[in-house]
Amino acid sequence: MGWNTIQRGPAWRTSSILRGxxxxxYFYFVHSFFPAPRDRMIVATRTxxxxxxxxxxxxxxxxxxxxxxxxxxxxxxxxxxxxxxxVSLCS
Length: 91
Hints:
With 91 residues, this protein is α+β, with helices and mostly antiparallel strands. 20% of the residues lie in helices and 33% in strands. It is built from one helix and six strands.
């Protein structure tokens, strides 16, 4: 829990939600749960905390994160702006 960094996963390059973010950017984590996808190719970010764990997934138009963008300052705002841009492209 608290602030921690993200690292690139295999799905980083295909996720427009992460555009403009960098490996090492900090995000805010509120709990210790995390996904453990069977298909490791959908892992968008990983985070080190005792061990390296999956902190977000991306596949097609789906994006889900363990961290909280709304509590994550500038990097969280960038992610949310990317999300809004993607949603507006769907209409």
